[in-house]
Amino acid sequence: MDMDKRIPVTLLTGFLGSGKTTLLNKLLHHPDMRDTAIIINELGDAGLDQIFANSNLAQNIENEHITDNTVLLSSGCLCCTLKNELADTMRDLFFKRALQAIPQFNRLIIETTGMADPGPILANLMNEPVIESVYRLDAVVVTIDSIYGLQQIEENTEALKQAAVADVLVLTKTDLASAEQINALKEKLITINPGATQHKIAHGELDPAFVVDVGLFDLATKHPEPQRWLRAPIKQAQPKGTLPQKTHNDDITSFTVIMPSPLNWSQLKPHLLSFCQKYGKNLLRLKGIIHAADQSAPLAIHAVHFTPYPPTLLEGWTEDEPLSRIVIIGKDLDELEIRKALMQF
Ligand SMILES: Nc1nc2c(ncn2[C@@H]2O[C@H](COP(=O)(O)OP(=O)(O)OP(=O)(O)O)[C@@H](O)[C@H]2O)c(=O)[nH]1
């Protein structure tokens, strides 16, 4: 069974004050998280001091020289002014690791600012040849404040986009929120992003197994786990005879398109590229599993906005019912038009 050897990257995002740092801080105390490099994007210079305040991690960091693996980017925002800096930092970390100039790390966590748009950051992770050859996106983890999250999602496009592209939604501060608040938030998140897993936490306490190595490969068994990764949204069936509706402005939708069979990757690949070029503006995320007649194994495909990511060949993985399917998460997309556009190639 083959496995993607690239370094898994967790993108940790979430609206202002939603508990990203608290979660990261707690995660890094866990023994399983020892070999983790971190890139933190903080606006202002409070940075690391604040992150590790009141924890004994700072001490551990000194001892284990993990500081070498921790980079603070504080002079701008990753999704706008610091795009190149993110790529430079990731390359730099990788080359230092290869030269053994810093301790080995087996995963990377990137913590964004609260107002970050994850789309450009994800596209940045995929666009650059060196980066895409040595790193792979494991999961987008999004923290959401159990008290204010609902309001933030309704009032801020950034919060809505963050929730929509998440693989893992972490509902924070449940010690402060009422059961009604938490339930209302959970319901809203299911409508925005039914494919994501949800975890309720307090004070950043969460088993790392729920947020890292949750991507395409199960690191324990080394086997591909594409179904878990795809997490196709389960939607209530449309009443018979009704067609998917066009969404309202700013609405986020998520749906699965079952692709025709048989199909050839040599034909689908250029089609996906032009599909992303046409609908990329509103295409927050595309994930899929493709069973192609001209490939030796199923393919995991992935795109963000205008950028399709190089597919991963899932060697040794089979399905009883080999259905090619693509999950679309987008903003203000006409579901019917998208379905037609994807199928016609
Ligand atoms: N009571 C309680 N407070 C929490 C919890 N999680 C975070 N906080 C507090 O909420 C505040 C914001 O948490 P942070 O972890 O700094 O949030 P953040 O998302 O990193 O914030 P920014 O980087 O400023 O966007 C801090 O004062 C935390 O101590 C929780 O589960 N319960």
Automatic annotation (TrEMBL):
PANTHER family: COBW DOMAIN-CONTAINING PROTEIN, COBW-RELATED
Molecular function terms, GO-annotated: hydrolase activity; nucleotide binding
Name the UniProt record assigns to this protein: Cobalamin synthesis protein P47K
Keywords annotated in UniProt: Chaperone, Hydrolase, Nucleotide-binding
Protein family (similarity comment): Belongs to the SIMIBI class G3E GTPase family. ZNG1 subfamily.
Residues of the CobW C-terminal domain: 252-345
Assigned GO CC terms: cytoplasm
Reaction equation(s) it catalyzes: GTP + H2O = GDP + phosphate + H(+)
CDD domains noted in UniProt: CobW-like
Function per UniProt: Zinc chaperone that directly transfers zinc cofactor to target proteins, thereby activating them. Zinc is transferred from the CXCC motif in the GTPase domain to the zinc binding site in target proteins in a process requiring GTP hydrolysis.
InterPro entries: CobW-likC_sf (IPR036627), CobW-like_C (IPR011629), CobW/HypB/UreG_nucleotide-bd (IPR003495), P-loop_NTPase (IPR027417), Zinc-reg_GTPase_activator (IPR051316)
